[in-house]
């Protein structure tokens, strides 16, 4: 029967990517997205505006998007900002970490002394650009035989019918969908996770991130920058040039994620945009000069969380439904894409090995959990440790400062270790 194998709840980037991956492998799948389907005109209106938010797509995420035919559309949009370097530094401290190969050691040097193009580490892409490419692929005829998309409907009830039958899911219009395997890809507040009774481990950082888009005096030179400040991290991430004016003077737009103590962030975001821009430039010590324009100012609270289990009978969690990390390394979506890769490969491998009889069996789901949960836990706690090491009152104690300064200086001098860090960031 068509579409009785897998039901994915959540049509965001991670859920849509898994749906396309399974359908391309000839596995029946239904995708439910609570958001109404956009028309082509609606999409063009959204795409006509610059989004302050970007995802730092790793090479591994890009490769997965290529496999499902979405990256080709993203690249053709000319709305990507590839980066070949990552610069991490602390103000008033010793040492700087510079990942990547630009052909010279000065990321702010306008001259190009290299004989070959720098190697790409990843690409900054606005969320809507990725979502539009995925939407186009979801409607493509090459996957239509195995893929059903239900948009604009919310799941209101989930009933487990036993391990051989899986789940019966009821939508708010009264319709019912049955599936052997139920996948929760419905974000941090996951309805699927809550209905399955899976608890969360949560760490509230008591920080808020200010997000905006800025046009800077100096070009970003395909470099993703992150300043480790006593108040939290400040990320300056390349944005694609979208207007003719931008393209005539390229590489001056950045996406900002500025982490501050919660009360300080909420007070700052209430100020005039020009005041915020001046404070932001000063906080970066004018790394890219003055800020000429600032747009789309918003904020969001920061907390890390992880589901105590990623799986239950006939049920599995992926992406933000399973885990959420501090944004300081920009790895949240990349971790979700690695979930997709691991789960799809494990499902297909065990299904083929069983002669086409076992789909989403408990041993399959447990294998996925063993692959992904320890890795995601390590990343989550590593980001928390870095945040603790640089931000807050304890981080300003002299012994901590000395340890941090010496550590960054020593690490920056060990080239094999720097190459390893760059490889880990790329996800390959």
TrEMBL record:
- Please state every residue range assigned to the domain named FAD-binding: 6-379
UniProt entry keywords in alphabetical sequence: FAD, Flavoprotein, Monooxygenase, Oxidoreductase
Q: Per the record's keyword annotation, is Flavoprotein included, yes or no?
A: yes
Coiled coil ranges: none
The cofactor required is: FAD
Listed transmembrane segments: none
InterPro entries (UniProt xref):
FAD-bd, FAD/NAD-bd_sf, Ubi_Hdrlase_CS, UbiH/COQ6, UbiH/COQ6_monooxygenase
Highest taxon of the lineage: Bacteria
Question: Which pathway does UniProt place it in?
Answer: Cofactor biosynthesis; ubiquinone biosynthesis
Query: Which Pfam families does the protein's record reference?
Result: FAD_binding_3 (PF01494)
Q: Which family does it belong to?
A: Belongs to the UbiH/COQ6 family.
The protein depicted here goes by the name FAD-dependent oxidoreductase
Record the organism: Psychrobacter glacincola
Lineage, broadest ranks: Bacteria, Pseudomonadati, Pseudomonadota, Gammaproteobacteria, Moraxellales
């Amino acid at each position: 029967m068509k579409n009785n194998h897998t039901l994915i709840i959540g049509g965001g980037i991670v859920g849509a990517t898994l749906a396309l991956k399974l359908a391309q492998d000839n596995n029946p799948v239904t995708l439910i997205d609570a958001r109404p389907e956009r028309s082509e005109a609606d999409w063009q209106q959204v795409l006509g505006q610059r989004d302050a938010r970007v995802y730092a797509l790793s090479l591994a995420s890009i490769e997965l998007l290529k496999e499902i035919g979405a990256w080709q559309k993203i690249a053709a949009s000319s709305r990507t900002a590839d980066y070949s370097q990552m610069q991490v530094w602390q103000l008033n401290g010793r040492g700087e970490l510079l990942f990547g190969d630009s052909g010279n050691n000065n990321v702010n040097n306008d001259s190009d002394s290299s004989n070959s193009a720098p190697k790409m580490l990843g690409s900054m892409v606005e969320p809507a650009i990725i979502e539009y490419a995925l939407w186009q692929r979801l409607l493509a005829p090459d996957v239509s035989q195995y893929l059903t998309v239900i948009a604009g409907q919310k799941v209101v009830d989930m009933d487990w019918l036993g391990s051989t039958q899986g789940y019966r899911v009821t939508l708010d219009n009264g319709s019912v969908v049955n599936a052997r395997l139920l996948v929760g890809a419905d974000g941090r507040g996951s309805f699927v996770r809550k209905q399955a009774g899976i608890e969360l481990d949560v760490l509230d950082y008591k920080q808020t991130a200010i997000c905006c888009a800025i046009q800077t005096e100096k070009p970003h030179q395909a470099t993703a920058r992150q300043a480790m400040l006593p108040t939290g991290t400040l990320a300056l991430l390349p944005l694609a040039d979208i207007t003719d004016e931008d393209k005539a003077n390229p590489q001056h737009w950045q996406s900002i994620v500025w982490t501050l103590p919660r009360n300080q962030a909420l007070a700052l975001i209430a100020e005039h945009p020009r005041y915020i821009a001046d404070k932001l430039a000063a906080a970066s010590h004018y790394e890219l000069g003055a800020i000429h324009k600032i747009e789309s100012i918003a904020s969001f609270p920061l907390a890390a969380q992880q589901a105590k289990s990623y799986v239950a009978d006939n049920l599995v969690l992926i992406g933000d439904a399973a885990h959420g990390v501090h944004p300081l390394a920009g790895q949240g979506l990349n971790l979700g894409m690695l979930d997709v890769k691991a789960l799809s490969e494990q499902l297909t491998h065990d299904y083929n090995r069983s002669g086409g009889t076992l789909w989403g069996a408990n041993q399959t789901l447990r294998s996925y959990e063993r692959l992904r949960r320890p890795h995601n836990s390590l990343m989550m706690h590593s980001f928390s440790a870095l945040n603790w090491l640089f931000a807050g009152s304890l981080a300003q104690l002299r012994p901590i400062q000395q340890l941090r300064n010496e550590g960054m200086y020593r690490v920056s001098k060990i080239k094999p270790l720097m190459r390893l860090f760059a490889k880990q960031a790329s996800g390959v």
